[in-house]
Amino acid sequence: MERAYLDEEVSAAQLPRLWVLIMPGTVDVLGVIVLAAGSSRRFGEDDKLLADLCNEPLVTFAFQLAANVPAAARLAGVSSEAVADLARAAGLHPIRIPQGETQSFSLRAGIKALDPRCDASLILLGDMPFLLGDDLAKLLEMKAPACAALGGKPVVPALLPRAWFDEILTLSEDCGARALLERTEAYQRLSLPASRLRDIDEPSDLLGFHEQ
Question: pTM for this structure?
Fold first, then answer.
């Protein structure tokens, strides 16, 4: 299957075509973890992960990307049964995260649940629907540790090596993988357009997208 690649903006009409097969990279045994739990206070009372985007729940886009990565384990940290059902439908194994826990908690839970054969883990966020399969393919061609970069600063998605797993399990509640990603050098960072690294924090983020 041909991989889609777009240089800049992603339009609503193009989004469904971004669920493409991602070819294996440099990792022998890979685990994928989608962080799709936690609160969405800025989004109001609704669960932002279930918000409509091109007639699909927002989190579906991250789940479908994860499902297309050749991996020994595909996990999703979730805090609602509705999101868990979507994870299962995409072929991911849901890990229940208590409501209100931090992203760091979800990351630690995912690392603990990984198949012990995994020598690296690809970390995705459930509220980042605009990434392309080609972005992940390029990241997987890099040697772990590696991550995306926005304006030179390291951000998720990230490819974390097994050598970091024990340290991740000791991270404090207010410290996610970002502190570890700060260790990466420039050559370990994949620069991506801000339009593809956008996350959804509040309803106006979706309104802006639909108006593009």
Answer: 0.86
